[in-house]
Amino acid sequence: MSDTPSDIEREIEEARERLAGTIDQLLYRSHPKTIVSREVAQVKAHYVDAGTGEPRTDNILKTVGAVVGVIALFVVVRKITR
Question: Are 55 and 47 in contact (CB under 8 A)?
Fold first, then answer.
């Protein structure tokens, strides 16, 4: 392997292009709109089957049950403290 100035310049330019690509990718991933869209997609995937588009009733019922349970707990605690 020869270390001529043109080889070194080429390697530096290749490294610079790789770094620029990495920085662009990091900027895209850390952009607030990208983060929000990724999180929304993750929540949708939890409640809707991606393959069929059908709602996942088991996950929906679990969430509704948890919300009703928390509300019932607040009502009971409030009645006890009065």
Answer: yes
Per-residue pLDDT tens over the stretch 12-66: 999 999 999 999 999 999 999 999 999 999 999 999 988 898 999 999 999 999 9
DSSP string, 42-55: HHHHHHB-TTT--B
Distances (CA, A) of 75 to 5, 41, 64, 65, 71: 77, 34, 17, 15, 6
Q: Residue 31 carries which DSSP code? A: S
pLDDT band at 1 (very low <50, low <70, confident <90, very high): low
Angstrom distance (rounded) from CA 58 to CA 75: 26
Q: Considering the entire predicted model, what is its pTM?
A: 0.55
Distance separating alpha carbons of residues 55 and 49, to the nearest angstrom: 6
